[in-house]
Amino acid sequence: MYLPARPRILYVGPGEAGPRAPRSPRELPLTDFDSIAAQRPATIEEAIPCMQLALRYFHERNDHRAVFLRAYYIITLNVHAAVHRRGDYENPIFFDRDWVRSQAGYFASLYFQSLTTFDRDPESERAWKIAHKMAEDKTTTVLQDLLLGLNAHINYDLAYGTFLNLRQHGDDAGHLLLPRRKFDHDQVNNILVRSIPQIAETLTRDYGGGITLLRKTLRGLDVVLSGTGLKYYRERVWWSAVSYLTTTDQEEVDLVHQKLNWESAQLAKLIADQSVWSLPVRTIGRAIRKDDFSRITLEVPAAQ
After folding, report:
1. What is the pLDDT of residues 46-76, one digit of tens each?
2. Where are the domains of the chain?
3. 3-class SS string, the chain
4. What's the pLDDT at 276?
5. Which end of the chain is more exposed for a tag (fewer CB within 10 A), N or C?
């Protein structure tokens, strides 16, 4: 169980009142792994350069942990576009954009904290331990790296991040604003679904693995299936966040955390299947992975 402190502000210079606009990935300074893992963005605007920094670090080392983070980065860029009504999101879709901005900060902070999961109890954050260990060992396919990261981040982190954001905004389990928060939560679901084709194309182009070929074979059914799965799990996330809100002491908070730890670990074990039955698929999947990430160019936020 961990209770991160309120994320700190990053990239704020002397005399500035708030975060700077996201910068080009090539403008960001190189850093070490510990500095990357210590990042705690407070808003979506701060999360984007933090992710760019981590992706540059992973790409320069051909680290497979880049796969999930790249997908997460694309989703974050699309949420950022929706928050600021840019690109394909010129029309408003959120009740409270500031709530979504803050939610993205909490969520990203939990991701960066997960990078040091092996420094904590072996029985904690089990879904993250599986995801990061397999990516570091390069024993997975691109699709497995993506799904393992999505599972840990959605089924383990998201409910807690949502709870922290609700608590920060003074929303309790009986608050009349909860239906409005749920609406914005569901709108992010729709952005995730819209991001699926872009994620599949980007991951296949830059990391290999054949996700695009799978999409063509399924003829759009993948969007239906993955979209349905994402919405199902994010619906469960919302009610887990509400469960956190109803807790009255640390013991009850730990109960919710332990439940999510167990559930996300079971799904991670299923995704990480290393049985003889899946060996042919895994062998082909690893064979068509790309090994050199050094020439990858990152997307940037949509212009105003």
Report:
1. 999 999 999 999 999 999 999 999 999 999 9
2. 25-287
3. CCCCCCCCCCCCCCCCCCCCCCCCHHHCCCCCHHHHHCCCCCCHHHHHHHHHHHHHHHHHCCCCCHHHHHHHHHHHHHHHHHHCCCCCCCCCCCCCHHHHHHHHHHHHHHHHHHCCHHHCCCCCCHHHHHHHHHHHHCCCCHHHHHHHHHHHHHHHHHHHHHHHHHHHCCCCCCCCCHHHHHHHHHHHHHHHHHHHHHHHHHHHHHHECCHHHHHHHHCCHHHHHHHHHHHHHHHHHHHHHHHHHHCCCHHHHHHHHHHHHHHHHHHHHHHCCCCHHHHHHHHHHHHCECCCCCCCCCCCCCCC
4. 73
5. C
